[in-house]
User: What shape does this take?
Amino acid sequence: MTIALLGTGLLGRAIAERLQLAGHCVTVYNRTTAKAIPLQACGITVVTRPEQAMAHADCVVLMLADAAAIHAVLLTEASLAILRGKTVIQMGTIAQEESLAIQAEVERAGGFYCEAPVLGSLTEAKAGTLLVMVGGTKRQFNEWSPLLRSLSRKPCLIGPVGKAASLKLALNQLIAAEISAFALSLGLVQRAGVPVETFMAILRESALFAEAFDKKLPRLLTRDYHHPNFSTRHLLKDVELFLKEATGYKLTTRSLEGIKPVLEETIARGLGEDDYAALYETVNPKT
Assistant: This one.
């Protein structure tokens, strides 16, 4: 299968490598070309314009940062002109209404559109064990199953376009809630003089435990947030998307509204591109 992948950020780069390793022919475009150049070592073609990547592709995979980036890369006059007959698979995290709007633009240009946001980090992307949630038709799900199964053991069809986008926001809201709560509890036991090992031993045996706590604990203890799996800046973007969508459904969002300024302050500290565990610097600043 010939795939054009647009957007080679942290996860996009790993997904491109995985697709190439699975036997697909991958061409990538990134707005900062230099960031994509290392992929050439894997046999992946790097181009300098999105339409070059899309021209001969069976499908177009979007791994762009947000809806604004999708509009700037995919929904230009040059790109729309070659979308007829092609399928666009949107794999980033955007809002339901944004996904539906992009679908309308793609279909107006004669193309096809579905969404397949993913849950997981670099490790899962490289191993092909991402959780892939598909918003589209049953026919699309079956047609693109070979591609999706290169990235996931069991892709899941959620419903029509928009449903998978909302589900992904719901899951990413939990990322923000879990890390902020864990950081706060860890900060308290440290300042109260309770051994971290004691805290973690009891936590692991309780119904409160989440694997993410063990994964993030070394970063928090060493205050090392380099080589991120998911950046603070992107988590803030997803929190803002969730708040907007949840408000539209008349949900009470005050708990998440409290996390948003913590993320904003963390970014103001210069940690926007670091792993989102960096919010620990705001929750438990050095004394």
Observations:
- The longest strand covers residues 2-6.
- The mean pLDDT is 97.
- The chain has two domains: 2-160, 166-283.
